[in-house]
């Protein structure tokens, strides 16, 4: 069963999403705990979202010091902050109108920060040029995506606009597409082969909607959310060739580009591969690449900032997009500053570098260990099967549910994996998401949870999950 | 000429707004200054927006100290911050998931902050109850308004949805309405009588669209933007009776509720007056009231947070609205914290109170002086006529343009007041907005500028404006 088809085509008709059911149940559980009800756990662990701070990962000191000094410039006079923190804060305040983070910024972002972002991209891609005027800063990558979709999707066309979208896919994109009246054209990632994206499947998906809708774009997520796959250069090349042939706009969600854990995996950007392929592809394929201050090791979700870089986009279309980004005030200044620090971190030789490096390494070690632990524990658990998590923030294992549990869920009018997750939060105090929120093949079931947690939290998560699962299977077998 | 009718009915068709023309010109002027071109001024003063920090008003220390401590909790250990700052920051951090402002917050706002906002509203309105579940926090009041409009406006109805909207009105609301395919039904405020809102005019406006569109809501701005009027209780009562009779949803933009300068003027909220009127009105009139951390003396525009309180709204509609607020991640946590401090400032007896009170009084004195100065200077200038600015952040005087100037503007294909503002930024380095952006009666011309500046800046603004105007009139007479 595929949830997408159940959501109405308009936000106004949007069904209560699965997570609202779960959120309600979780609220009940938390209230009971507060009222002193005795349960096998004392607090609920919530790993539904890619939100490292919520799970206990500490923020990066350099980021927070710069932000605090920008907010309260009296701190610039204190010698408690290292000189590079103070210099950075001063420079960033000079880029704010009136020298205050309290001023409105230009709706597409503070120009000095767009400049730094473009320098970061150029460096990341081994010298492929990047231009600040092609970068739009917004309150988050999903916000950027919605603006681009707004231009691509024509809700009034007789043949509805279609966007090729991976299965599984995180729900926010699906909601955006639906809200704009677009048709989600699902293409299935190949779970058995580590959630790889196969061009034959794109081809099949495209053919399946002939005459039904007008496909205009392909949406890809690399590193995958929730799949955890990091795409190879070859796979990216194939995708680019495909969109070029089919004249599709390429929407590349690359927000987890810093989160790569697989030993052989490496993040290569779509833009870099596009440039490597040379003309005519490199001059013609329209690409939007999304990134965010919420993601990566920084994990500043609460600050709300991301950017999109546009490549090869028609100038008229660029003007429409710019108008949309100008409709509301832009990203919060402090989120933009976090984005600057993310793309321009302390370098060797800088006074803040040693601590920055240490904190980054600690997070990396934690996540690499978590991913290893998840893989080992889940694959040793009967009824579980988990592909390696090469990148991103999530594990998305298959769970094999006993037929009686599936039957019981259906009687209760809910998806079997939602039923599983509801029981999990109730009985084990662990809040995770059911696979049906992300899309999955008929009669397969999954769960998604964030792997960005301290190591002891991950040990506890896996313990709760294992114990619960064993009991659950016993109950329904 | 009325600009609204020139903007397409869809964001995609949106015309280049007047301010984009001005912004381009300003950029050119600033670049020339940087390149050493000698002009009669050394920098451009930009008072287009209600953005006090940009103009040089200082942020409130208590707000910034709490925010900095939330961002960088090591500051909580320092005794440089007063104890109430530290206590406040600790309490707010406890309200954030994982104790970090870097975590996602619930999409409708951090519950503890909605609670504080509702307590503020109850106190403001002399005890009229306010419930946190009716309060939605978002990245700004315009964002909230767009969500409410999204529910009220049906873009697919055969008879288009109409919203009664004041003339003059700030452009962001007009853009939102247009973007949603709504019909803007203009009602004219009475300039000669101090920009008062007259029910007969509402009546006229409503009748003028019979059979043309389906009016569903009335949008009011109190204190006015750009009108500067503070509505009397009696006027509010009349408006409430009108919307009740006509079964219109009442959208009350009350973001400048703290900015009241007139000696006899007093802000009374629509909600309070509604409660005073008693049943059946107080139980039936659907009201949304908007407020924002960007406005008032705090002026934290860059932090992006506001709220809307809904009164008497049908529970089914509330569910739609909640879904919309849940579509994207909510307001940045730091903006929400600013909102908490705005609605819950230091009280007498608190260690931070003396400085807080002093800073607030300084800002108030400055603004009262500015408003007085604007009124006196402009009304003594031939060709200018300015109503008293009782509240809000703007002056919106009439300018009488010489026929030759109007002719020249028309030849250049632009609105006469845009022509005036273009010349003003070029020749005097003063960036303000033309009245045509806000709507004005045929053959009348206005300018809008922000009065929230330091006193010496206001002296300079009025000097530049007076000198330019005298020269301009001479040139075209």
Automatic annotation (TrEMBL), chains A, B:
Cofactor: pyridoxal 5'-phosphate
UniProtKB keywords: Aminotransferase, Pyridoxal phosphate, Transferase
EC number(s) per entry: 2.6.1.2
Domain Aminotransferase class I/classII large: residue ranges: 81-464
One Pfam family linked to the record: Aminotran_1_2
Catalysed reaction, written as an equation: L-alanine + 2-oxoglutarate = pyruvate + L-glutamate
GO biological process, one term: L-alanine catabolic process
Biological or metabolic pathway of the protein: Amino-acid degradation; L-alanine degradation via transaminase pathway; pyruvate from L-alanine: step 1/1
Enzyme class: transferase
Gene Ontology molecular function, alphabetical: L-alanine:2-oxoglutarate aminotransferase activity; pyridoxal phosphate binding
UniProt record similarity statement: Belongs to the class-I pyridoxal-phosphate-dependent aminotransferase family. Alanine aminotransferase subfamily.
Record text on subunit structure and interactions: Homodimer.
Protein name in UniProt: alanine transaminase
């Amino acid at each position: 069963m595929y949830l997408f088809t159940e959501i109405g085509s308009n936000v106004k008709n949007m069904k209560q999403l699965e997570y609202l059911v779960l959120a309600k149940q979780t609220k009940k559980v938390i209230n009971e705990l507060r009222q002193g009800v005795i349960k096998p756990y004392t607090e609920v662990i919530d790993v539904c979202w890619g939100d490292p701070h919520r799970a206990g990962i500490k923020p990066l000191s350099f980021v927070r010091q710069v932000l605090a000094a920008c907010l309260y410039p009296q701190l610039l006079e204190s010698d408690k902050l290292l000189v590079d923190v103070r210099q950075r804060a001063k420079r960033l305040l000079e880029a704010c109108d009136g020298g205050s983070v309290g001023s409105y910024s230009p709706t597409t972002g503070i120009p000095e920060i767009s400049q730094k972002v473009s320098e970061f991209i150029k460096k990341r891609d081994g010298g492929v040029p990047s231009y600040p005027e092609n970068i739009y800063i917004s309150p988050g990558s999903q916000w950027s995506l919605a603006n681009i979709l707004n231009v691509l999707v024509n809700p009034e066309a007789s043949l509805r606009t279609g966007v090729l979208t991976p299965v599984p896919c995180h729900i926010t994109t699906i909601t955006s597409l639906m809200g704009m009246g677009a048709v989600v054209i699902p293409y299935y990632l190949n779970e058995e082969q580590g959630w790889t994206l196969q061009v034959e499947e794109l081809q099949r998906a495209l053919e399946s909607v002939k005459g039904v809708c007008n496909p205009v774009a392909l949406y890809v997520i690399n590193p995958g959310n929730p799949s955890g796959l990091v795409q190879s250069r070859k796979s990216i090349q194939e995708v680019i060739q495909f969109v070029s042939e089919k004249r599709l706009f390429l929407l590349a969600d690359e927000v987890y580009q810093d989160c790569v854990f697989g030993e052989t995996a490496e993040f290569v950007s779509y833009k870099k591969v596009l440039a490597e392929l040379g003309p005519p592809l490199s001059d013609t394929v329209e690409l939007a690449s999304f990134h965010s201050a919420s993601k990566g090791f920084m994990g500043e979700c609460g600050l709300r900032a991301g950017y999109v870089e546009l490549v090869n986009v028609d100038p008229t279309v660029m003007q429409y997009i710019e108008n949309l980004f100008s409709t509301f005030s832009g990203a919060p200044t402090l989120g933009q500053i976090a984005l600057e620090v993310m793309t321009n971190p302390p370098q060797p030789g800088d006074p803040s570098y040693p601590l920055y490096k240490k904190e980054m390494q600690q997070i990396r070690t934690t996540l690499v260990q978590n991913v290893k632990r998840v893989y080992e524990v889940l694959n040793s658990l009967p009824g579980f099967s988990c592909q390696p998590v090469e990148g991103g923030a999530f594990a998305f294992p298959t769970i094999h549910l006993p037929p009686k549990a599936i039957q019981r869920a259906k009687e209760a009018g809910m998806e079997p994996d939602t039923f599983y997750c509801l029981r999990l939060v109730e009985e084990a105090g662990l809040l995770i998401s059911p696979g049906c929120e992300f899309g999955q093949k008929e009669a397969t079931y999954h769960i998604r949870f964030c792997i960005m947690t301290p190591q002891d939290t991950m040990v506890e998560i896996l313990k709760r999950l294992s114990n619960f699962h064993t009991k659950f299977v016993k109950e329904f077998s």
